[in-house]
Specification:
By secondary structure, the chain is an alpha+beta fold. It has 15 helices and 19 strands. α11 crosses α12. The two termini are 56 Å apart.
């Protein structure tokens, strides 16, 4: 099915982009629209700010009313305790006290008469008891936290009524938050004989919190007023509340749940009031909290009031949506009026526009008469435009003829220029190659002179060592058999030194390397190189890993290959700063299923080589090590190239490098050094 909605949108989008009528309408309406949107935005901002502040002020004032209500309840409680203390029955019983237990039981029975949860007469006989209870009379009424034993001493049922199961836990809160009034009792001689202790238990006191809630949120059936909640906390635990367990269905009471950590820290630990939004059990509320303090000014709980945030936000967003819809309707009506009023004005302009579009697609047409007065600006513009089109057609024919001639000349010049450019690029490429070869030859020449001098200097002490070893062997005579293996090892290493120096001398000559090239298996040479490198790196934390699978034999100089392997392995160890895993592996060199030689890989976990340095590492004297000479890779490269071998390197900066030695079965004089 065709997408009519998409095509209609594209059509109107095209009109707004191309037609003068709509563009001018937008230009005239945009300032009004933007100004109106700015005013609406400012109104919404200030409305949000002041509405939110008003909501916080409202909940804070309701918390103040709740606090005053509790103070009134405490004052009423104190009056009841005083009234009982001044009653005839109590005064008579005190003055004619014969059995304390019976009298104390009678006092406790009067609690319901005076609307108290506990009422207890404490007889004191010692100075210590008097001072302990006198300390409780500093305030007329005060909040206090009592443990299970203290609650049981006040009233037998009080401890059981105070128990609160902590939600989602197997624990019970057995302490009680009470409002107490303690009054000193005197005998006829004006001596202190005891104290009357009465008050209310706030744990599970749902009637109390409902009465206070109904006082500060009086209109439950008024949809414009919030349905509020009230909570009394013992520390951070809700011991009496009408906050529902389900805020949507408003069922249950969240007694035994804890306050959020943010409010806990601010109110209980810092002793501050909290007036802001907070997460209350299962939903966000606009809340106000204040600490509940005992007679020593210690924070022992909290008093909370608040109401759900979502109805408040929903009502506010509804008002904003109504204002926005009304504004959009007004803008739509005003835009329609401007469009209909400007249609007659823009018809001639649109006719001129249509003519211009037809000319753009190659049709020969003119504006002609617009049905306007001859002195009208648009009529004059149309005549001038028609004259311009006639003149443009004449100039177009002249330009077309000139362009044909010019194109022929440009094609000739372009072909000649392309030939010259290709020749220049070829010459530049040859020049760069020649320059690189000259630089390399100069470095290799210097390297040849240097190696020749080094080889001669090494041969002299080598000859002395060899002579002394033979002299020792001669002097020892038959006893030389005991150190035969050591002497043979010295001879072997002297032969190796002489082979290396002979190779260096031969390398420094123009004729190249003339040392012995034989068929060899590479795996024994690799194992010998690893043994030598391990011996020289015992103090380093290097893990050697070998994976040797090469089976084919190759034509190679054993000593020179051993020198190359040792050099590459030591380079890898240096790159790892003496700690890491060095992997040496070998495999057959296969191309199109045919074995043509062997490949040796030396992989390290060092710092790697930067991409811009990969093309320079085989140049003589180039090195990144402070104590290096830059000759190791250059010499290895030269030795391999003269026997048809190939040296490749792969490296990722920061991950390590892998050097690969490609050895053909049949030695050739071919230079192949490739950097990947």
């Amino acid at each position: 099915m065709p997408n009519n909605g998409g095509s209609l949108w594209s059509k109107w989008r095209y009109r707004f982009k191309t037609m003068v009528r709509y563009r001018l309408m937008i230009l005239t309406s945009a300032p009004i629209f933007l100004t109106l949107m700015a005013l609406i935005g400012i109104t919404i901002y200030w409305s949000i700010h002041y509405t939110w502040q008003s909501a916080l002020l409202d909940v804070s004032e309701r918390l103040g009313v709740a606090e005053n209500s509790i103070e009134l309840i405490q004052e009423k409680q104190a009056n009841h305790v005083k009234a009982f203390a001044e009653s005839f029955d109590f005064v008579y019983g005190i003055n004619h006290l014969s059995d304390f237990d019976d009298f104390s039981g009678w006092v406790s029975e009067q609690k319901s008469r005076y609307k108290l949860d506990f009422l207890r007469f404490h007889r004191v006989d010692t100075i210590e008891q008097k001072f302990r209870y006198l300390d409780l009379t500093r305030k007329e009424s005060f909040f206090d936290v009592l443990d299970q034993n203290e609650l049981d001493s006040l009233d037998k049922d009080l401890a059981k009524r105070a128990q609160i199961p902590i939600l989602n836990s197997q624990k019970l809160e057995q302490r009680g938050l009470v409002s107490r009034t303690v009054i000193t009792i005197y005998n006829q001689k004006n001596d202190i004989i005891g104290f009357l202790d009465g008050g209310l238990l706030l744990n599970n006191s749902t009637v109390l919190v409902d009465q206070i809630r109904d006082l500060i949120y009086p209109s439950k059936e008024d949809n414009l007023r919030p349905v509020g909640t009230l909570t009394v906390f013992l520390d951070d635990l809700r011991v009496s509340t009408n906050v529902p367990l389900d805020s949507n269905d408003r069922v249950g009471r969240a007694i035994g749940t804890r306050v959020s950590s943010q409010v806990n820290r601010a109110v209980l630990f810092e002793g501050k009031e909290w007036v802001n939004k907070a997460f209350v059990y299962d939903a966000w509320y606009i809340t106000a909290y204040q600490p509940i303090r005992d007679q020593y000014d210690n924070v022992i709980g909290m008093l909370y009031t608040g109401y759900l945030l979502w109805p408040f936000v929903k009502a506010y967003m509804t008002n904003i949506a109504e204002i926005s819809v009304t504004t959009l309707v007004l803008l739509l009506i005003s835009g329609l009026m401007v469009y209909r009023g400007s249609r007659d004005l823009f018809n001639p302009i649109e006719h001129i526009h249509r003519v211009v579009k037809m000319i753009q697609i190659g049709k020969e047409t003119r504006i002609g008469q617009l049905g306007l007065d001859e002195n009208h600006e648009l009529a004059q513009l149309a005549r001038q435009f028609d004259n311009m089109l006639d003149l443009l057609k004449q100039r177009k024919n002249e330009i077309r003829n000139s362009a044909i001639v010019l194109e022929g000349k440009v094609e000739e010049r372009t072909a000649s220029l392309m030939e010259k450019t290709e020749e220049l690029e070829l010459h530049i490429q040859l020049l760069n190659q020649t320059r690189d070869k000259l630089v390399t030859n100069e470095k290799l020449a210097a390297l040849g002179e240097l190696t020749a001098g080094i080889a001669h200097e090494i041969n002299n002490p080598t000859a002395v060592i060899l002579g002394n070893v033979e002299l020792i062997q001669f002097e020892l005579g038959p006893d030389a058999e005991r150190v035969k293996e050591e002497i043979e090892a010295i001879h072997g290493q002297i032969d190796r030194i002489r082979n290396i120096t002979r190779s260096l001398l031969q390398y420094s000559r123009q004729g190249g390397v003339q040392d012995e090239i034989t068929w060899q298996h590479v795996n024994p040479i690799i194992e010998e190189s690893i043994t030598l490198v391990k011996t020289g790196s015992k103090k380093r934390d290097i893990e050697f890993v070998t994976d040797l699978h090469a089976k084919s034999s190759v034509e190679v100089n054993r000593h020179q290959l051993l020198q190359i392997l040792v050099n590459l392995q030591m380079n890898g160890i240096h790159a790892m700063d003496g700690a890491g895993k060095l992997t040496v592996s070998s495999e057959d060199w296969l191309e199109q299923g045919t074995c043509i030689g062997a490949i040796i890989h030396i992989q390290d976990e060092g710092c790697g080589i930067k991409e811009e340095n990969l093309k320079r590492i085989f140049s003589p004297f180039y090195t990144t090590k402070r104590e290096g000479t830059g000759l190791g890779l250059s010499v290895s490269q030269s030795i391999l190239s003269q026997t048809g071998g190939e040296l490749k390197v792969e490296s990722n900066w920061g991950e390590g490098s892998t050097f690969s030695i490609y050895l053909p079965q049949r030695a050739e004089s071919d230079l192949k050094i490739t950097n990947l």
